[in-house]
Amino acid sequence: MAAPVRASLMITCLGDVFFPEVGVAMVRLLRGLGVEVDFPESQTCCGLPLFNSGYHHDAALVAARTVDLFQHAEHVVVPSGSCAWMVKTEYPGLLKNDPARHAAALSLARRTRELSQFLVGVLGVTRLDTRFEGRVTYHDSCHLLRGLGESAAPRALLRAVPGVELVELPGADECCGFGGSFAVRLPEVSSAILDKKLANVEATGARCLVACDAGCLMQMGGGLSRRGSSVKAVHLAQVLAGEVPR
Amino acid sequence: MSEGLLRTPLPERAGAALRDTFLQQALTIATTKFIDLRREAFAGLPQGEALRDRARAIKEATLQHLDAHLERLADNVERLGGTVHWAATAEEAREIVLRLARDRGVRMAVKSKSMATEEVDLNEALEHAGITPVETDLGEYIIQLAHERPSHIIAPAIHKTKGQVAELFSRELGGRFEADPEVLTAVARKALREKFLQADMGITGANFAVAETGTVVLVTNEGNGRMVTSLPRIHVALMGIEKVIPSMSDLVVFLAILARSATGQKLSSYTTLVRGPRRPGELEGPEELHLILLDNGRSRQIASTLREALYCLRCGACLNVCPVYRQIGGHAYGYTYPGPIGILLTAMLKGNESVRELAHASSLCGACKDVCPVRIDIPRMLVELREHLDREKIAPWAERMLFRAFRRLLLSPAAFRASARAGRWLQRPFVRAGRLRGLPLLLGRWTRTRDLPPVAARTFRERWKELR
Amino acid sequence: MAARAEFLERIRREVARTKGLFDAATAPRPPRPAEAAEAIRRELAERWPQALERFRREFERVSGVFHRVPDRAAVPDAIAAIARERGARRLVTWDPAILGFDAGPRLAAEGCAVVAARAGREDEASRLRHRADAAAAQLGVTGADFVLAETGTLILLSGAGRPRSTSLLPDAHVAVFGRDRLLETLEQVGVMLEDLHVDPDAAMSGAMINFITGPSRTADIELTLTRGVHGPKEVHAVFVETP
Questions:
Q1: What is the pLDDT of residue B154?
Q2: Do C147 and C106 meet the contact criterion of CB atoms below 8 Å apart?
Q3: To the nearest whole angstrom, how far is the Cα of A142 from the nearest Cα of chain B?
Q4: Which residues of chain A are modeled with pLDDT < 50?
Q5: Which of B63, B161, B284 sits opposite C20 (nearest CB)?
Q6: Which CATH class is domain A134-240?
């Protein structure tokens, strides 16, 4: 009998505060797949907002703390492409002047995966017995797609749910306009980019718009609800766990 | 760029562009077409990815011995009877051209498209000196007549309707011309043919210069590049120092991917290799060739974080895929070079202060890096630029304090939890049907067009107790 | 030359401050270009039918008009047909000694005036006269020094008896070539260019090399493609079967 897979959750700042239901869905999903889940409670954020706006010294401090916090985790699973990207690609560079933490950052980078990459790459999930009926469409978050090179795993997982009808979103690989602080630095441009995205979304006739990044979901969900759309913006974890709100 | 325009903050310039319906349509159509053409062109080139790697390597390797390559280039150009000039600054470049024009009695100069000449504001200087510069690239000709600046690196008049062009030609050239691109092109052909034949000087940029042979290379589609380098008696080429490449073997690597990246063509209609002024056996060609090597802030980047930006081939592929460029077009950027690479080039040429707003005109989506023929990591350099803005205190004090405060919050789980609780309380007046609307201040910029989810009644951490 | 020394010194200093971003190499160059060029010629001597077919496809893809004639003697007829179709009455051509045929007599029979460049006549008067002739011509006839199949491209060297404007000023351009000009890839073109530049003054009498891929074109007005902006509106390639 193989030892159970143990995963520590990096829930992300947005996930913790705005989308706890995503974390809950993720926990139930992972436990349903036999994973032992733990949650280092004093985590806050990976520091990406600081990094992207150029506050690298500050981001390095947050990175150091995060690296320490997760040093004993076997696997670190993140429901966010951008946060996983931050840990995997940027942490080592940020901590390069601190040899011990630099080594720890490299180790953390290896152990950290975005959720869909964990499910497919580590657990080898190919089928899920989730109860979900309906047409969904998938948006490729920029950091997951281009930063981590992942576009297949989320789609494969959606197709692994028997009731899902996955319709390809035209311009799926185009930015939703979030970009972190960009959304409030150039709000009109951000909204114009969003409008284009949502026009494509609504044209698919999907009931749900699925993404793997809280930032994208805030942006797209915020736009959909402002237009009174019946399309729900949900996280992949929610579909896979069968916990999509009605 | 017009200083007046730059005094308008970027969000306002962007807003004006967003409200320009024709521009919006034109941008969507043009950029989508270029994206499709590029995709098709690379789909048909199995060695495309390898060529991009090689092109990037050639650019990097050349930079590592840039001075030696430039020296070799200069020696070869001079051996061919050309003259090489060294312009450390935009002003020096202008001075050199003006001096040449004055000494040689030049009254009219025909120009083939050159971003470098835009960068140094050459046309204005020539006009002030009583010399007439005539842009001959159709798009550049149009905007010259309209007294505007280009809005795209390779399709400068993308923002003009055919009706506007017809009106413009009718007014400036005398006549009544139909709003039909064929008709208008024929009008331009006729008008400019005269200029080519009469001009005293031809001015070009250079896409590449081959050090080993002293060859200046022009990549064009219209034929004006060939005209201005064969008909007038003097040819002046203004070239950024980063355009030098070592050999002909290097050249064909770039030729294989440049046009594909820019317009989806396998090769542009004309690739012109100019090896000095006309040779004794030739009936045609300029008597004099002048190559002006332009630094203007480039050398300073060799050892900086913006080094990679020196690889740029000026193909425009990054503009076409940039979600920001696609919405606001080139003029809103405010400088000679727009789009993702434009932000880096502006910082390079005008200093970090000039990109205090522009450095944030990006969602960091990375589409630009995906399509750059030489794989320039533009998003990484934008983030580095932002880091400079913080370090050099160019970013506003209030913003820097806000992010410092945010960092302190992130380093203290207790403070983080307390802020969530505070948020839950403060948001109450703004909750409508489970969403946040009408938020004040900074967050108001979000809620003007989008809802926000409220701070959850219980955060994930608070729910973990039952989940564990 | 203070400006040059200072300019280069500034660059040298900056270059010395950094190792660069990564280990990188420039493109490998043929150590013996003449041999490499010869090897390519031998290869194409075998593969010319495939190369020709590919050239025709690519050339037509960029709106080129392809013709095929059995031998040099048949070329003037082909040109006359093209001139007739276009209503061209004035032609300019490269030196017939370079072309391997003289279209003059055949076209005179059609009532067309043909001005042929002659190597060796490069005085000022000839220069001015030629410019006027080229500007007035409706059709220009040249050879092609290389013909690239991969992209449908004609590569022309300028020089004595082969003026630049012949393929540029008239509304239509006709390039005549045989199997020995065919190349398949850009990479091969690179080798040929290396070979040409080993002793460039011996290999080329002119200062310009033009790669011509279809007619002159622009999409600068509303992205609508139009041809014949400044250069020719039409490009024809005439392949001569018998070498």
A1: 80
A2: no
A3: 5
A4: none
A5: B63
A6: alpha beta
Is it the case that residue B2 has pLDDT exceeding 80? no
Pick the CATH number of B308-391 from 1.10.10.10, 3.40.1710.10, 3.20.20.140, 1.10.1060.10: 1.10.1060.10
Residue-range definition of the domain harbouring residue C235:
53-217+225-240
Question: Quick check: B114 pLDDT over 50?
Answer: yes
Percentage, residues of chain B above pLDDT 90: 93
- C86–chain B Cβ distance below 8 A for any pair: no
Give B211-237 as a DSSP string: TTTTEEEEEESSSHHHHHTTSSSEEEE
Residue C232, both tokens: 């020719």
With CB atoms and an 8 Å threshold, state whether C210 touches B270. yes
CB C51, CB B271: distance < 8 Å: no
- Residue A150 backbone dihedrals phi, psi, to 5 degrees: -115, 115
3-state class (DSSP) for residue C115: strand
Give the domain B45-296 fold: Rossmann fold (3.40.50)
For residue B281, pLDDT over 80 is answered with yes
Q: What is the pLDDT of residue A245?
A: 83
Task: For residue B406, give the nearest of A42, A50, A187 by CB distance.
Answer: A50
Cβ of B188 within 8 Å of Cβ of C229? The answer is: yes
DSSP H helices, chain A, are 13-17, 20-32, 48-52, 56-69, 81-85, 91-94, 99-111, 115-121, 142, 152-159, 182-185, 187-203, 214-226, 236-240
Q: Is the model's pLDDT at B244 over the cut of 80?
A: yes
Task: Provide the domain count of chain C.
Answer: 1
pLDDT in tens, A65-86: 999 999 999 999 999 999 999 9
pLDDT at B5 over 70: no
Domain ranges of chain A: 6-121, 134-240
Task: Identify the helix (H) or strand (E) that includes residue B119.
Answer: helix B115-119
Size of interface B-C (CB pairs under 8 A): 276
A128: distance to nearest CA of chain B, Å? 22
The ranges of chain B annotated as CATH 1.10.1060.10 are: 308-391
Average pLDDT of the residues of chain C: 96
Q: Is C125 on the interface with B (CB under 8 A)?
A: no
What average pLDDT does range C35-56 have in this prediction? 98
| Contacts (Cβ under 8 Å, ≥6 apart) of B346 | B333, B335, B336, B337, B354, B355, B358
Q: How far apart are CA C56 and CA C52, in angstroms?
A: 6
Question: Considering CB atoms only, which of B369, B403, B451 is closest to A225?
Answer: B451
Question: Minimal Cα–Cα distance from B136 to chain C, Å?
Answer: 9
Residues 6+ apart with CB under 8 A from B218: B112, B204, B205, B206, B207, B225, B229, B270, B271, B272, B274
Q: Would the pLDDT of C1 be above 70?
A: no
Contact B272 C187 (CB under 8 A): no
Name every chain A residue with its beta carbon within 8 A of the beta carbon of B382. none
B20 neighbourhood in chain A, CB within 8 Å: none
B4 pLDDT higher than 70: no
Q: Look up tokens 């400068």; give the residue.
A: B156
Q: Please give the full DSSP string across A29-72, using - where no structure is assigned.
A: HHHHTT-EEE--TT----SHHHHHTT-HHHHHHHHHHHHHHTTT
Give CA–CA dist A195/A198, Å, rounded: 5
Contact at CB, C217 and B269, closer than 8 angstroms:
yes
Assess if residue C233 is contained within a domain: yes
Q: Tell if the CB–CB gap between C159 and B184 is shorter than 8 Å.
A: no
CATH number of the domain bearing residue C203? 3.40.50.10420
Task: State mean pLDDT over C219-228.
Answer: 91
pLDDT digits (tens, 9 = 90+) for C168-208: 999 999 999 999 999 999 999 999 999 999 999 999 999 99
pLDDT value for C122 = 79
Judged by 3 or more CB pairs under 8 A, whether A touches C is: no
Examine the pLDDT at B1 and tell me if it is beyond 50: no
